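cache lookup: miss for this entity combination. No prior model stored, computing from scratch. Input as submitted by user K.M.:
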Amino acid sequence: MPPDATRNLLDKVWDAHAVRELPSGQTQLFIGLHLIHEVTSPQAFAMLREMELPVRFPERTFATVDHIIPTRSQKRPLADELAEQMLQALERNTADSGITFFGPSSGHQGVVHVIGPELGLTQPGMTIACGDSHTSTHGAFGSMAFGIGTSQVRDVLATQCLAMARPRVRRIDVTGKLAGGVYAKDVILAIIRQLGVEGGVGFAYEYAGPVIDAMTIEERLTVCNMSIEGGARCGYVNPDAVTVDYLRGRPYSPRGAAFDRAAKYWLSLASGPAASYDDRVELDGNALAPSVTWGINPGQSVGVDERLPVPSAVPDGERAALEEAYAFMQLEPGTPIAGTKVDVTFIGSCTNGRISDLREAARVARTGKVASGVKALVVPGSQEVAKQAEEEGLDEVFRAAGFEWRKPGCSMCLAMNPDKLVGPQICASSSNRNFKGRQGSPTGRTLLMSPAMVAAAALAGAVTDVREVL
Amino acid sequence: MEKIERVIGTGCVLRGDNIDTDRIIPARYLRCISFDGLGENAFEDDRIQAKGDHPLDDQRFDGASLLIVDHNFGSGSSREHAPQALMRRGFRAFVGGSFAEIFAGNCTSLGLPCVTLGDAERARLMDDVNLDPTQELVLDLEARTLSSRRGTVSVEIPDGMRQTLLGGSWNATAVLLEAGKDIERTASELPYMSGFAE
């Protein structure tokens, strides 16, 4: 058997990027693509200046502004002085270091994990790092993508390397076929529900099986995006024809004969047929329903046709977590999740702010009007996504139904810009975290679901099974 | 760089699984270009909701160096602002059931060990420190032990992190730079670095 047949993708990519073994036993790993944004990079540049070090590979780092950018008016100076200060620091740091910056006037600005793929920067077999936990998104291409902290952003700027321990690999096969109205978001929420929010600690997740094979790149991005919510260090899907087709003709993709060579290389990185894994798990895709989180971590979800769990019916070890979640969420144990009233709906984020997400949500939006009293936001993931959606008339579909069509950014996923919940509002959200206070109000409550489910909740004013709408 | 061999001090008990970094430092405090002053806002929303009944507002735990937590502490966002805020409040080590990996990595970069111990031992330690917050705790990374008034228990920490702290190489930049031209050599062997040129 050729040696490649027994190696998984992580082994191949890791070994190709290993510079050396460090005295600590960790690996010094070369990072092929570094993405930065305004929140976690300014301190890293300050540390670099203090150490009097240059950026070692400025052509391998790309920047954009996403977390703090307002979604109504992006006119400079930004209304929030602190946000303006952060944007200026990024402009200055990138200009001084020779780093490409996709700012608001570039036509390419957007959520960092949306623009990397759409520009063709993200490619199979790369190691990728970004000072943002959702960097795991880029694994959809068969790259190894790590969220890092600011000190590590400094490390990458100064050396294009990270000191890392090799993760173990858990293969997750999703079998069968998804029913209509069941999306990639429902798959990853089901995986996290099954394996838990810390089940992935120490692991990279390899997503595979018929359901993953049948997914588009955008769907795979959604799955890999929330690997971090399952506690995994990163997540990936093996490159295949879908991956190669997506990359053809992107601004930073190779061209002509170089593309053909690239495609051959990319496909050679996929885990071999006899690859070994540290763990294997299977999930039945046929059995999945649209998922909705009801609690304060992404593992606390139910199918839209289920009732909320009852604390007295769960094992002792799990009861405290349920009780804490109910105390915060103010929902009734044992009641159906469907019918839960919502005040705000948010479609967007690095999880579900791409064009396919907006198309699915618009399909639902065409069927009615936003319920009275519901504030409904649609925030495209990037300027490219916004442009494409506007060319297809999706912005008009949303506006006609009573949704607000905003400018691109992270927006209400983490509410660092003016888009925030108020008081104990409940938000149906296509984002990735339902943590206490995540959407900008310390008492605000988040129900995570697919973009189509969010659109259905906006129209009904309550959690609704999108399968009954489509 | 300073070798982190031992952390000695009193403890603070913070119970609850899955305490995420949004709770440790709410996102609105990430609107800054320096980490200075973040200690003030650590756990701000939790503390407001606890109306003074939060461990960080409990005077008995004032001056604590070791934060004792439950499972999956520091999950969620990669924001280094979280350990920076806790470090600025005086914490020098974290003892828990388990830690989210990016959080533990960030702590290592700052020279702050994250060590784990079993559920029964952790529950006992929490109760002990809660009853007698003045007792001195000694975290010994070389011996992988934690000593309290009750005695000494074993703790665990991934070996790479432990060696990084013990060796004083937790500010990784200097160590990574030592690879010199091997960095460029590794890069030159990656086909994408040359745009898949022939």
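stored under new cache key. The two ends of chain A are 48 Å apart (CA to CA).
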